Amino acid sequence: MAAGEVRAVTSHCCETMRRQIEHHCDDHADAYDCPDAVVAFSTRFQEYGLIIHDGGRSSFGIAFCPWCGSRLPESQRDRWFEELERLGLDPWEDEVPPAYEDDRWLTGAGPSVGPAAD
């Protein structure tokens, strides 16, 4: 892998982290509503966070796994915003291309990164 190149997370650092990220609750469709869900993973930004159960959708970013202690991948949030800016897009005002809604923008997989066709 070249310097500065980032790979999308395809597996988590340990079995406990994988179970936490893949947690499914029969009572809550959204992990942010489930008190048993403690960790969130953003494929878009490649970042992990501890869920803040305050009725919103906030999480506190973490750099190390709470269970195995492994260093987690560096967040790509800043790079995501820089890429959209480079494309001349404002994510608060413009439609974000589908490839930027998950990790496809990092991997180059998926459809074109230009604006979605009508």
Major sheet description: 3 strands, antiparallel
Strand content: 5-15%
What's the count of strands? 3
Shape: globular
The total of helices stands at: 3
Name the helix and strand elements from N-terminus to C-terminus, one letter apiece.
HEEEHH
Which value, in Å, is the CA radius of gyration?
Answer: 16 Å
Class by SSE composition: alpha+beta
Low-pLDDT ranges: 113-118
- What is the first-to-last residue Cα distance? 36 Å
Spatial arrangement of strands, main beta sheet: 1-2-3
Fraction of residues in H or I helices:
10-25%
Question: Roughly what is the average pLDDT, rounded to an integer?
Answer: 87
What does this structure look like?
By secondary structure, the protein is of the alpha+beta class. Helix content is 18%, strand content 12%. It is built from three helices and three strands. It has a three-stranded antiparallel β-sheet with strand order 1-2-3. The radius of gyration is 16 Å and the shape is globular.
